[in-house]
Backbone:
């Protein structure tokens, strides 16, 4: 209605569920509030895994009631129907039948048993996927409806908050791989449509009139992509923030070159050392020669 009334307003839509990465390395997982886990929480990862592989420890922890001073974790821990093994390549549109809760019911076991074993997998480096929003009906059909609306933009791709539990830095790549090539549970988008949404449409919406298209006079900001080879890798934890603090990271194959202002800054995902970018403030006008046309 605001757009119809002439107000230039855009809604930002995440192209996949807004969710958490649950893991022993991260800041959230279902067993944080169990007393037995509290006793090992400060051990290095290898020490946690060694303790959790003890059958007696496993049985004791699973049988425990959670501590009451973790209300968010406790509410999350009971939502077994929303916990999925992420997989490789990561699956951000899992079928509800693949949840650990549904699998446990089919096997006739306590869901915590499957969750426990999944967290200890890969020497404790595995993550479970917990879609919190945009996934009420167990598919991304409603997300597609929102993304197709002309008054929306694809967004939420930064990795700047809750970095021990959220990893959305890969969303621009996911928009290409999932929505233009790999989706099997519903309709996709045309590749050109998604590229325009993430380049020209986004640039114009935030007042960057000097980029977003390949044309004389515009900034030569270009990604050269091997689309058939484009693939997301699973998230992993790095410890490179001040004081050695953690953050989730995710990489992708298939980016042949990333060019900023005509200089190659990445080749095959690796930095070249070139740093031509600079801080910009506010509206950036289109090249004058073209703006006059």
Residues:
């Amino acid at each position: 209605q605001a757009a119809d009334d002439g107000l230039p307003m855009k809604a930002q839509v995440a192209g996949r569920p807004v969710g958490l990465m649950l893991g022993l390395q991260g800041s959230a997982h279902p067993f944080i509030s169990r007393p037995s886990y509290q006793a090992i929480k400060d051990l290095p990862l290898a020490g946690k895994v060694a303790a959790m592989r003890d059958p007696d420890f496993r049985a004791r922890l699973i049988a425990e009631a959670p501590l009451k001073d973790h209300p968010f974790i406790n509410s999350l821990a009971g939502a077994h129907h929303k916990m999925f093994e992420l997989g490789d390549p990561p699956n951000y549109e899992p079928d509800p039948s693949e949840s650990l809760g549904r699998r446990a019911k089919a096997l006739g076991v306590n869901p915590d048993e499957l969750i426990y074993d999944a967290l200890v997998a890969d020497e404790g480096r595995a993550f479970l996927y917990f879609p919190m929003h945009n996934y009420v009906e167990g598919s991304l059909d409603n997300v597609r409806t929102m993304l197709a609306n002309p008054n929306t933009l694809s967004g939420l791709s930064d990795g700047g908050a809750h970095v021990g539990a959220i990893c959305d830095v890969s969303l621009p790549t996911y928009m290409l791989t999932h929505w233009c090539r790999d989706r099997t549970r519903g309709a996709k988008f045309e590749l050109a449509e998604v590229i325009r949404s993430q380049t020209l449409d986004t640039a114009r919406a935030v007042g960057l009139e000097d980029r977003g298209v390949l044309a004389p006079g515009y900034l030569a900001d270009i990604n050269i992509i091997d689309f058939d080879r484009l693939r997301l890798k699973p998230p992993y934890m790095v410890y490179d923030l001040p004081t050695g603090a953690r953050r989730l990271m995710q990489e992708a194959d298939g980016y042949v070159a990333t060019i900023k202002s005509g200089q190659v800054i990445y080749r095959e995902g690796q930095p070249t050392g070139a740093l031509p970018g600079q801080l910009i403030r506010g509206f950036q006008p289109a090249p004058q020669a073209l703006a006059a046309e």
Summary: Residues 17-138 form one domain.
